[in-house]
Amino acid sequence: MTAEQLARTERILEKFGSRGEAMLIAILQEVQKEEHYLPKEILESISRKMDIPMTRIYAIATFYKSFSLKPKGRHQIKVCTGTACHIKGAAKNRDEIMRRLGISDGEVTADRNFSVETVNCLGTCALAPVIVVDDQYYDGITPAKIKRTLEHYSEDHDE
Amino acid sequence: MTNKSAKEIQARIRLDAVRDAAGKRKAKYRHIVRVCNTGCRSRRSSMIVDALHDAVLARGIEKEVLIQPTGCHGFCEFGPVMVVEPQGFFYGKVTAADVPEIVSETLIDGNPVKRLLWTDPDSGREVLLERDIPFYHRQQKLVSRKCGSIDPTSIEDYLAEGGYRALEKALFEMRPQEVIEQVESSGLRGRGGGGFPVGRKWRSCRQAEGLVKYVIANGDEGDPGAFMDRCLMEGDPHSILEGMIIGAYAIGAHEGFLYVRDEYPLAVEHLSIAIGQAEQHGLLGEEILGSQFNFTVSINRGAGAFVCGESTALMNSLEGKMGEPRAKYIHTVESGLWGRPSNLNNVETWANVPLIINEGPQWFRDIGTNGSKGTKIFSVVGKVNNPGLVEVPMGTTLREIIFDIGGGITPGSQFKAVQTGGPSGGCLPASRLDMSVDFDLLSDAGSMMGSGGMIVMDERTCMVDLARYYIGFLISESCGKCVPCREGLAQMNEILTGICKGQAHEQDIDTLQELALFMRDASLCGLGQTAPNPVLSTLRYFRSEYEACASASVGRTRCG
Question: How high is the pLDDT of residue B1?
Fold first, then answer.
């Protein structure tokens, strides 16, 4: 764990720590937001400081989908697989993204530029099919649009 | 009822002064430009708002124009949408590049920008006003009426529209029991899916033993294809809060929780702002509006688990645990969050409460059908021309919703089925199009109201594949605690995949049916009990598709 990570974790624990175990999900959400995943060392330090067994922390970290125990890419692609997106071709888009990047669901590219995951409905069903890159929504997605979108974020990486 | 205290009178005078000032402030502007900046944000509406600010400043008319970001108008197909007052011109598919023309043509010269108006596909004519678009004709916007008109981050806007008057009425003119009686007699049923009578739940919770009680708003809208709760939380957060405060007063709770899906960061932001503002104005906290009543609300973010939409799983999650459901014979109104009496309602249910208190139960009962009162917001999506959010009285037919409001099926396609109620619901065929939509009729037809998602499908969707899609979704969302749900879903998935691939066995369809009925009876919570519905309803109405896939050879099925 780096000194910055330690400081960040301390801050999060200070914010929620006194309110006990009920805040565990909120604490892990903050860690996930800061680090983009849940590093093992941070979880161990939370376990020690809050006196919560690691088994309980892992139970929470693996039960809820928004947590990741693996680092994510610089750009995180979410492919919505809600019903409206499903019937408008989400599976084709998912396959196209994974084919182009050469990775499968939940993986990171070798250069760490992209990670991709399929997600449950994002609630933007009127714009289906939808993908989200970082916080930017792309609606009415087709394989041709995927090519352009990926290129956009690859250039961004080269700069 | 307490006598009017000086504190109470002062608090209410202050609130009226805020309402008055907000109204006057608005009246000072020559133009109000309302831009949807919640739902349309995914289509870059924030850039339109920024461009508007720049453009009015450049033209020196910034003092005459109020630029107001609003919630969702429902007509998502046409988004990003904008309304320019006083004329009320309704523009759609607006981009930041259109802004200079809107400013010079409409704000300065007073003319509509014709190319941004909605064009009727039948007559080819442009329509100037929002209310003249057929999409809105059969709608009755009550719960969502403020979403497109007020700034959801401004309590002054909400107050100016009569906000928190229902709370004043409940607190100062009604005893808690009277509030419960009114909600009970309104016939309001839970909007989250179950349709349980709201007043009865409140009464049980009020009568339950215990000094500490909780109220909870379920904003964990997990049904794929449903986004009406998102619209309310982002577009009119105070209406949910007002409902919760009234409910807490009626039940005798002093602490409330809003559980919001992790996928909805803007909803969390707007609700947090609303809570802060309500506290500032004495509408939350100690001695609300000078009364003896104390109540606080906090927000908990979900962490991505569909099962947490189930009330007992949600309560476990609020306690910081895994979102596993609890046994049903213990009622949450008696022993819920931390073992205390807890009353949980969906956010749309809470947003109905101020309406009932303001307008009275009789008014509410006059809307809807015998068993289902009031309106319901539906998200109509999939292969329709106007995907979006619609609010209609209970009892409106599927045909009216899909064809008159939704604008019919996308060109070149034919209606095949509509899926309602999410993964717990079912698929209804064309023969059911003239069915009125209410809680009981949907259940009788083998589907359910659910939270109000309606996904319209054309002939290109294979019903076996759709059933497999839902079962696949539920496999990853089942918490795994009880065997019927965990193993039943896995077995159903295997059989459905076999049928889709043309590798079906002779008894497969019968086995599916048997498994489905067993899961319905033996699962622990609502997720497992309703999980077989997508299979059962497609078997009921589209059995021939199963048979066609089952008798096809490998690689020759439609759904592969």
Answer: 46
